[in-house]
Amino acid sequence: MEKIRMTTPLVEMDGDEMTRILWKMIKEILLEPYIELNTEYYDLGLVHRNDTNDQVTVDSAHAARKYGVAVKCATITPNAQRVEEYNLKEMWKSPNGTIRAILDGTVFRKPIIVKGINPYIPTWKKPITIARHAYGDVYKNAELRAPAGSKAELVITHSDGTERRALIHDFQSEGIVQGIHNLDESIGSFARSCFNFALDQKEDIWFATKDTISKTYDHRFKDVFQEIFDREYKEKFDDAGIEYFYTLIDDAVARVVRSEGGFIWACKNYDGDVMSDMLATAFGSLGMMTSVLVSPDGTYEYEAAHGTVTAHYRKHLRGESTSTNSIATLFAWTGALRKRGELDGNEALSAFADKLEQAAIRTIEEGVMTGDLARLSTLPERRTVDTETFLQEIRLRL
Ligand code: NAP
Ligand code: MG
């Protein structure tokens, strides 16, 4: 068989621990035999990030912007323990945070649905994708405790020195105060990423805030979304036959639970933090959750939603057999290859990505799966296989 050629490179961001092992196996077993892989390789493994003073992370994000499509392996976000373990020069920042800041992107998390792994909500037939705004609100707050007898005010000092004030509370007894902010520009980027992704997926998009209570703050989110939609997206949505739907957050959660799925749910920062964990759990396994960072200018970076699966890596290092689910990492690759194919008019590449996904899903639906899925599956006959055998079984079907 002649290998599929790629005209434009894919930005490849390698990572850490067990997912780094999966990465190599996926390439050797499922990609390189069929594709003349053309990637621009960046090693985001913690050792190399440390060696380059994290410059490699910044370079990889700029490469993603240049070529438009990247695929990323899970990476360690260092904490004090990791600084010691890897003898780091510094506690480097989260690579995902660095890349997201450079691309100004929004993260979309989408579950992969297979027969036998049933969502906890029986009406959910199709995936629900969560989009979380990744700037501001309670994550960039200022907060203080207020003693009895104190007064808390909100003060805005204009550039000419004039002030506007609003009373927060006259504290008769001890209490707490919090100040939060957001930026029209960031909300606008979030809105554009959401609308672009909805067009890309051909799915409706829902957005919800608490604008009835928060008449200035949350209402601004609602207005920015609506203005951008009406001005830049309405016609494109009409042509694609999809819809933008705004509702109150309380109404949204009720509708989500009653829905069949098959839409994108845009959330403010805190709502998205909480709701994405809820959805990931309700849909089944972390090993089946994909993630894609979409920038407002249309750069796509695909990855798994889970981390580096440290516990499995320790077993692997001890020479013990592991059964780590490679589906989310594999689908990061297929997502990136399909997008590369779409952008380059390379139908063979996109078709290969589809076939590889189908082979992977068929493997699980035929009862061959990793331990995390075997624990959840309702299939009467199932066989738990190790990390590499699972990939070989996908190759058989491919
Ligand atoms: P994790 O790697 O997602 O793993 C947590 C647990 O979830 C695992 O111990 C395993 O449970 C299960 N799990 C996750 N993915 C699985 C898979 N593919 N197959 C089977 N089971 C899977 O989270 P963590 O242990 O909290 O974090 C480890 C490292 O990853 C940290 O250094 C963190 O900084 C990093 N991290 C990176 C990203 C990213 O790059 N996007 C995201 C999150 C975390 P059992 O042990 O019960 O089998
Ligand atoms: Mg969370």
The helix-strand sequence is EHEHHEHHEEEEEEHEHEHEHEEHHHEHEH
Strand count, sense and barrel status of the largest sheet are:
10 strands, mixed
Report low-confidence residues grouped into runs of 5 or more: none
Average pLDDT: 95
Number of helices: 14
Query: How many β-strands, per DSSP?
Result: 16
Would you give an account of this structure?
It is a single chain. With about 400 residues, the protein is an alpha/beta fold. Helices cover about 45% and strands about 20% of the residues. The chain has helices spanning about 15-30, 45-50, 55-65, 80-85, 95-105, 185-200, 215-240, 250-260, 270-285, 310-315, 325-345, 345-365, 370-375, 385-395, and strands at about 10-15, 40-45, 70, 105-110, 130, 140-145, 150-155, 165-170, 175-180, 205-210, 245-250, 265, 290-295, 300-305, 370, 385. A 10-stranded mixed β-sheet has the order 2-1-3-14-13-4-5-12-10-11, sandwiched between helices. Strands 6-9 form a two-stranded antiparallel sheet. Strand 1 (about 10-15), helix 1 (about 15-30) and strand 2 form a beta-alpha-beta unit. It is globular and about 75 Å long. The site of NADP nicotinamide-adenine-dinucleotide phosphate has 17 residues, from helix 10.
